[in-house]
Amino acid sequence: MWRYLIWAAVLQSLTSGEVHFEQNVEENLLTVVPCVRRLCEKYFKSERAMKGSLAIINIKPDTSLFQLNILKSFNEDPRHEMGVMVKDGRKKHQNASHVTEKAKNYLLMVSDSSELDPPINQLRRLPTWNPLAQVVVLFTSEMTPLIFEIEVRNALQKLFENSVLNSNVMVQRFGTSVLEVWTWFPYENGGCADDIVNIRLIDECEYAEIPVESVEQAENSGFVDPELEYMNGTFANSSFANQNDFSGVDEVTLTPQETVWMFREKHFFADYGPKIPKDYNNCPLKVSTPIWEPFVVGNETSIEKGLEVLMIEAITARMKLTPVYKIIEPERATARITADNITGFYADLIKRRTDVMIGGLYENPISRKLLSSTIPYYQDDLTWCVPTARHAPKWLNVFIIFNIWTWLIAIVIVFFAAGIIYCFNHVEKGYPENYTWMALQSLALSLSVYAHYWPKRFSVRLFLVGYMFYGIHWSAAYHSFLISVLTRPRFETQVATVETAIEQDFRFAGAENTLVFFDRPDSISKHIAAVYQTCPNMDDCLARLHSERTVAVAISRAHSHNSKSIGEAEIFCFARTDNIQTYSVGMMVKKDFHLLPKINDLIRRISESGLLGKWQVESDKIRIDEDLDEGGGGGDGGHGDGQIVLKVEHIEGAFILGAVGLGLATISFIVEVVYFKLKQKYKWDDTTFSNLIC
């Protein structure tokens, strides 16, 4: 059924528009049809013999018996290993999105190289486009040796400019029925697939009528197989592509003049191997990258290390390539992503001045249209980073052990107990002391320290025993919590969401190419876009977090944890649930890069082997070591065993409280001296008020 559907499509394509075939077609052109089919069978490969492999044949604008015979020869292949799709460069192709299989083979029939652009442009727009497929260009007009050499080179060059390296050009030798096949080898003689230097004749084929003395002589010469059938005076092999047929002959025709039709072939440069070999002559692999830790670590003049640098080194070592790095300045790396091929971020790849671009990159609509990319190998996200919350004031350390209500209750208990003791003392007529002295005794008992009071009544002693038990528990609780409070850092409330940052009037900053993520109708995105500040250099933008407390920077989470411009302890990045964008990291390569499948295969092996995780751990270790070197051995006060040495700032609250007490005592003393002087001068009598004070 498939066979008849293809043939119907072919006939419809060739007969549309009142196609009229010329009756007088040049016999020389028709005689190369068997050779075209035979050589295409050699070049075209089908990796799935059961299902078939897609071959796209692009016909010329003019209809001819030659094209009909070519298509007929493909359609009548008894094995049907290839599905055939017919295209006409003149017509806009129908929606082919239902065809998911990439084409394995292309046959382009053109008069000369000037007709190649329309079919190539059409094929590139198809979802079946595959630059690694086998491409055969067939010139349908005879050319003189001088002309066809120029045309062959032009055809190969146009295919090369469209990233097609597996290309062959068929041309009929002038004045003969010989079909020649010309090609080039991208890595021949140490070449690096950057220019077409030598074109090579690799095959010749002629389907010619050869006289023989008799059929028996043909059999003895190996020209006729005993299993051939005789039909209408013609010996024909019942299986045109049988792999067990005789060498050089697929069809034998006996004419009254005792001649046979046979293939005569010559093969050249059989030792050149595949067009795309396994190793690549240590050719340069041009890599463009910004400095973007942890993927690429270095400075403005050199590349040192990094996750993706290690990947590039491993890939190039396996493929026998030599990496050549070009550093992209930060201003270009952070600019808005455009299709500009002059100064844009992707300009080097678009103009094919570089092969690969790394630096923690992810796909976007422009890169999908203009570039190709490797398989992803790392997941990163774009998030907001803000300064870490500052340490809370240390002078409050001695007070935050209990909340305000606990402290108020404790203070009330001290003064209330002092009043009770004062009343007991007054009843007993014991110590001639005032209320202030009793308050001091009450405070001493509440702190579980010695107090100078010896009551006589049993009831008073019983009250003091209970009060002392209260003081023991209060003191134990206070001192046990005091150690943890003094040795554990306390921080202010950390800004951890975009909503909180907006409430606290934060400014938002980041790369210009990040603005695209805030082109949304919600209120938060509109607010961010309105106050957004672009940063030409993201490391400088991160460094602002040292001194500016109300700024949030949109940046890669991986880079924020590895940037040398700020310590990891000085930056806080929002949780992954509040990410701006989560994306997969991969390498960008020039469109239809012929080494991309091999690079993808090696990336897959690197990922499966666990090397990526190992390199990531090593990068983190390097960062930690650098931080320790810069910090003088850590933040434990110079003690490598992790002990914390309490400093004045840890207990400055106690000193402040003592200073306040001394200040109040000084003021009280001055007031008492002044009062005493005034009493002596004006001979005041003692009053109840003076007794309470003195």
Annotate the secondary structure layout.
Layout lengths: L1 H14 L11 H5 L1 H11 L9 E7 L5 H11 L6 E7 L16 E6 L6 H9 L8 E6 L5 H17 L5 E6 L5 E6 L16 E12 L3 H6 L8 E3 L2 E3 L14 E3 L5 E9 L15 E7 L7 E2 L4 E3 L1 H13 L1 E7 L2 H5 L12 H4 L5 E6 L3 H6 L1 E2 L4 E10 L16 H25 L6 H12 L11 H30 L10 H6 L3 E4 L12 H9 L1 E2 L3 H6 L7 E6 H4 L10 E3 L7 E9 L6 H14 L1 H20 L21 H31 L5 H6 L1
Membrane topology: Multi-pass membrane protein
InterPro entries: Insect_Ionotropic_Sensory_Rcpt (IPR052192)
Subcellular location: Cell membrane
Structural notes for this entry:
This protein is α/β, with parallel strands linked by helices and 694 residues long. 38% of the residues lie in helices and 19% in strands. Strands 12, 15, 16, 17, 18, 19, 20, 21, 22 and 23 form a 10-stranded mixed beta sheet that branches. Strand 13 and strand 14 form a beta hairpin. Helix 12 packs across helix 13. The N terminus is likely disordered.
The radius of gyration computed from the alpha-carbon positions, rounded to a whole number of angstroms, is: 45 Å
- The 3D shape can be described as rod-shaped
**Low-confidence runs of at least 5 consecutive residues:** 1-25, 221-255, 631-641
Distance between the termini: 121 Å
In percent, how helical is the residue content?
A: 25-40%
What structural category arises from helix and sheet content?
A: alpha/beta
What fraction of residues sit in β-strands? 15-25%
Number of strands: 23
The largest pleated sheet is described as: 10 strands, mixed
Average pLDDT number: 78
- Number of helical runs? 22
